[in-house]
Amino acid sequence: MSKEQNILLVDDHPENLIALEAILEDVDCSLLMANSGNEALALLLKHDVALVLLDVQMPGMDGFEVAELMRKSNRTKNVPIIFVTAISKEAKYVARGYGVGAIDYMFKPLNPEILQHKARFFLDLDMQKRRLEEKLRKSQESKEAFMRAMGDEPPAES
User: Fold this and answer.
1) So what CATH class is 6-149?
2) What is the pLDDT of residues 34-80, one digit of tens each?
3) Model pTM?
4) Where are the domains of the chain?
5) Could you write out the three-class secondary structure of the chain?
């Protein structure tokens, strides 16, 4: 199970992506970067990600819209999203962020140590999920092999 883990960083300001990259350089994962909501969604179609750090205010498609679209897709509906913002501290924006599926909200300037801990936590959760999925897959294969050996066909999946 050597599949690499990814964190997706989404911000329309390149300097913010560079700052996030610097904060997360010691976290054992690959960083994918997007400058827009559309670019983020395209990357999510191509890559599995353990966490998305998502800017709220972006031109075109804002972070809320990206989160809403992620939650509508089976592929990304359970990917943890942390909103990262310098501006939207008002309660209504924070509530909207949680309403569209964010699991956390961090305000700039970011505390690097806290962001690193959160990133590692979600990478650990992702690894546990992968291990469970692998065990489930192996268990299903064993069950099917046993049933074939006994002369029974496994039930067709619905």
Assistant:
1) alpha beta
2) 999 999 999 999 999 999 999 999 999 999 999 999 999 999 999 99
3) 0.86
4) 6-149
5) CCCCCEEEEECCCHHHHHHHHHHHCCCCCEEEEECCHHHHHHHHHHCCCCEEEEECCCCCCCHHHHHHHHHHCCCCCCCCEEEEECCCCCHHHHHHHHHCCCCEEEECCCCHHHHHHHHHHHHHHHHHHHHHHHHHHHHHHHHHHHHHHCCCCCCCCC
